[in-house]
Amino acid sequence: MDTTEPRSGRSGGIAGLYRGLIRFIAGTMMTAIVAIMVAQVVARYVFGSSLIWAEELCRYILVWMTFLLLGLSYQKGEFVTLEMFPGALPVTMRRILRIVMALPVLVFLAIVIWTGWIYASRFDTQTTPALDFIWGSLFGHPLHLSIRWIYVSVSVGAALLFLHILVDLALRFRRLLRREPDRADVMGTSGEIA
Amino acid sequence: ATRTLRFAHAANEIHPGHIIATSFAESLEKLVPGAFDVQIFPNRQLGDDKQNLESVVAGALDMCNASGVQYPLVTGRPALDAYQLPFLIRDYDHFAKLALSDAAQKIHDDLEPAGLIGLATADIGRRHFLSVASAVKKTDQFAGLKTRIVPVPLHKAIWEAIGVSPVGLPYGEVYGALETKVIDALEINVSSMLGENLWEVGKHFTLTGHYPWHATTAMSKIVFDSFEPDLQAALREAGKQSVIATLDYAKQQDETGRGELQEKGVEIVELEDLDKVKEKVAPIVGQWSQKSPLIAEFVAAAEAS
Amino acid sequence: MGTFFAVFALLVATGVPIALVLGVAGTLYLFLSGNGAMAIMLPQRMMAGVDQFVLLTIPLFLLAGNLMNVGGITDRIVQFARAMVGHRRGGMSSVTVLSAGFFAGISGSATAEASALGSILIPAMNRQGMPSAYAAALVGISSIMGPIIPPSITMIIYGVLAGASIGQLFLAGVVPGMAIAGGLLAYASWRAHREGYPTTPRVAWSECIVATKRTLPALILPLIILVGIKGGIFTPTEAAAVAVAYALFIGLVYRDLTPTSIWNAMIATALVSASILFITSMASIVSFVLTLERAPQKIASMVLALTDNKYLILLILNLFLLLLGMFLEPISILILTMPILLKLAAIIQMDPVQFGTMAVLNVVIGMATPPVGILLFIVASISGQPLSAVIREAAPMIGICIIILMLVALVPAFSLFLPSALMAVN
Ligand code: NA
Ligand code: NA
User: Fold this and answer.
1) Which chain B residue lies closest to A59 (C-alpha atoms)?
2) What is the value of pTM for the model shown?
3) How many helices (H) and strands (E) does chain A have?
4) Cβ–Cβ of C234/B182 closer than 8 Å?
5) Neighbours of A122 (CB within 10 A)
6) Is B143 an 8 Å CB contact of chain A?
7) Protein residues with C-beta less than 5 angstroms from the ion ligand 1
8) pLDDT score for A5
């Protein structure tokens, strides 16, 4: 895996701001997970007292991190794809196939965005014990943050992925019309599994 | 026509948490033969307690049985905590009396605004204390023991009052954590000691009986409302019958299970100064009673019976 | 179920990312099976596929490996392996296998291993006169050790699905992992003698000692992990965070890491783990629909209707997993099949730790089998060789791994000896 990310695409404007923000949140969340889990080991093993909220909070961070990064991860070509068959097709066919096959994916993501929002809304009264415990020990009263703000990550992530695919599709469509060559960097076969 | 009811829970097939589902299905079949086909999904097949409960609230699943401790979390309605106030319910017989009382019915009814019809609450195994290094025989010995608890407000309050050092850990990692002594102790029931083979890694079992482990069967209100009144009555009656059947099973498993544990080399001890622990946690009953008049009423009913 | 598999195959073949294939086909199956009203559950299942404490090991073990890689540990491991076996005939091929074994001890993932080692070792073998396709195949197949020798993300996932002890699973992988190394070393020597690959002079003792010293911190990581878990200092999940802390520590001590390189590694790891966790998230939709349709029970009784012979069931299990491994990646295979296969494992009374070792080895071998073999993709792209040439070279090496898979399946002690000796109850 490369750790020095090549700067691809436009880096200015709203897109650049978005990428910068997501990357910053990603780094922060990753750092937070490491810090909380190491703190938990030290607290329990060295001081014999446990951070009772650690496990739950780490899970919430992981969930948000995963869904928030889907779009960017897709754009970077981290999604594993079998390119063998499309790769053997003539260029125009391949582009048309890509565009056609994006449709069921977009429909699926739309369903997820919609149901995700409804699902999150159903649990407005459910709170997050971990954050209540932290708040309680800091300020003497629970935070009462609704679990909705964790659950809504599914919708947000699906929406970002939806947008990324849509932009990708628009660019492909333009190249198809103008008969420009493909950019090689989108939807590669990298990705790190197991 | 036969209506299919999908019923999910997280317990394995020998656990009382499964009996509450099977006995419900059997009673229902006797009451209204052929009216329902209850499909039971045990063993976390469709999700853990919290997920199953959420699915029923969302109206996607017909019914579930989940730990009572999850209901206040998921629905924001605190009353089911009443069952686990420390040392309030004395034993299985006392539980049976209370679970079928008016005060209990009101707690079930209180779930309706959250979209749930409470049908049954049973004790699926009274909780005791398992320790790894040595037996806890005196209250002082709880001090500082790294004890895995469910990280919810009520349990945190109880175990901090007793003096242990509560640890939050996913249930799936408990066996390994006891084996390697990441944690020193666990509050647990006999059926889980046997079902999850915890006796292999913890050999000292103190009979504290601090609270029952109550599990509640709930049905989606939308689904319930779609049935005719006579079927609704049958569902409620089957719920009540499942409470009795489950308590019988749990009580018996608890008694024979202790013998089995002893045969497997587990030392079972009493707490010499149980009153001291009771004293430490006594204020919690009052604190929680203030959270809901339903809890206060349940406490009064428990103390009067 | 037939429609589901047809749609699945169509989507995979037309180049839709595997994660999205799982989601789209799973959702379609939900509607086709008359459970469309349960679409509201999709977000819950997607959450459930990620919202698990144990899955934190995925970003964390990746990050630990990543930090070590940025910190130059890969080079040091190769130096060390060269000092030990570099003088043999076709020495770089032996160095490759040995390096992969050591790297497996710090990495929980096979793909991390293939990309880190491939870029260094494929050109190095090539310079020593070995064909690039052979070099690529050797790196790819050696990377199978990554998730077999502890630590291992795949073992942890299995442990959680099966409720098996992760410490025991880690130990169970040690001997089979070393057996793979032994088998590949033997094959590499045989090839080197047959093809007459050149030898290089033995490295001086002083250089050996320097190389050992420089590599030692990385080599003791698996020991730290096993001792830490066994000693009750941390849980297997937390071990992943400890590995990160350790990688940061030695990186800072050796001044190989800078705040910028650490920060970049954090971001890159987060992006990669998002794509993996998206697969587990989507796989959880499919496994939900399969459970609703009672597929595990149906398939289990279908198998039992065929035979109740323990060895035949074992054979069916392995063929089934190898078949899935041709198309899917390890974690989603485990999520999809464990509800079914654990039932069968219980029926033939196989120990869950032995079964887990077998299943994990099986699905990891699938990473190196065509048509979808991520390890083959990686090494083919690094070496610039056509996939077909790499596959031809890889075939006998996959054969070696399958022999070891058979040993794991048929000889309980092969995997269970270490865990029962070191983590015996009482
Ligand atoms: Na490894
Ligand atoms: Na494959």
Assistant:
1) B170
2) 0.89
3) 7, 0
4) yes
5) 18
6) no
7) C 104, 146, 149, 152
8) 41
